[in-house]
Amino acid sequence: MRFISRAIIGTTAATLTLSLAACGSSSSAGVANQPADGASVAAATDISQCTAEGTTIDVAFNSLAKEPMEAAVKVIEDRYPGLSINAVPSVSTDYGELTQQIVADIAVGKRPDVIMTGLGQMQFWVDTYNPVPLDKGVLPETYQTQFLGAGTARDGVTYLAPAQISAPVMAVNQDLLDAAGAGDAEDIKTYEDLLDVARQVSDHTGKPSVSIAPSGLPEWYTQGLVQNSGGTLVNEDGTAAFGDAAGIAALDIWSELGRDGLEAGIPAASEAVDIFTSGTLPVTMITTSNIASISQGVGDKFDWMPIKLPSIDGVQDRALPAGGNGYMVLSDDSCRAAFSGELIGQILTPESVMQASGTQRSYIPVDTIARDELLASDQASPQMTFAWTFDNKLTQWGGGFPGAHTAKIYDAIELMDQQLQTGAETATAVQDAVATIDAIVLGENS
């Protein structure tokens, strides 16, 4: 799994190599209606036709959701006397390790009915286990449905209910901008704005002033930059879409910062967050889930603000890729699927969302009542308010690259990002990455 600081914000498929090799090859993923264990996922039936007595629901999740899951289980078991829900959290908060455990359990006949998964792994589950679409009717009325795009796969079907979510943004040290007379963080809306600020601050300090780290979250940052300027990461057939003019233009900011000596050259996203928190890095790309930890680390040492990603044309409300986690039904029994849907709905009630998010975390709340309660708390600083009110539509992490090959694909993107950070010619670096990805997807380098 890849991390940003200490905040869990999603996952790539890099740690799933063993799992994918075991059960997610390109041939198995392409067989319609044939999950990896041979058992079809069942569509939920009318729950009134189901008998709770003697029914057991198995849930696979990790400790990030321990408190809301315990509360939701109690409500559902009370609502349906006789129903038993087996929900013991994995100790690890690593989504990759959780996925490997679920895959191993399924391989020995212990398929869970409900799984928690990192949003970056949704396409793997869709390609490999052929889940049924999410029953949106189980969601509370106050659920923010604009975020369902994060649980929608490449085929346009929503399979997962996002729970704890975040999006790529930037953090700006306002004190360093003030010292250089470089204006206000909130005025950075276009790439030219960012370059102007970077030049002014670097002229003042004599040091590079911006970090877009290529390692740690390469595919997420890349996708964020591409989509935020109107481009597309993945084609409908799973090949790379960002080699067009829009994609190259969107990613050229990375290379231009490098060419002009404005990119700090920090290799890892977590390191960039740490250096920003120390007060010596003026601007860095982060995610909304980092805001709480940065706020705690900065305290009152300096004035800073998160801002939406700048874009080529200054538009900042386009859909962005989401990190975090959500819930999906994998039950092979229609009644267990129905009870599973009820459990997911309960996990996403305002009370549960408050427990999952909380005033000490900067996840984007998926429920409006929970959001308003967070905003009314004494923890609603300008920085936390930015996270809790973030309302761009969200899309699938990874854009829908085939789940069996994402580790190799993300490695190709990371190599491209490393080249861009050093100021490499953008079109060449992008086209090389696209060629590598397409060869992987089309089976020429699998």
Automatic annotation (TrEMBL):
Pfam family, one: SBP_bac_8
KW Aminoacyl-tRNA synthetase (keyword) present: no
InterPro entries to which the protein is assigned, alphabetical: Bact_solute-bd_prot1 (IPR050490), SBP (IPR006059)
Residues spanning the signal sequence: 1-29
Keywords linked to the UniProt accession: Signal
Taxonomic superkingdom: Bacteria
Name this protein carries in UniProt: Extracellular solute-binding protein
SUPFAM superfamilies from the UniProt entry: Periplasmic binding protein-like II
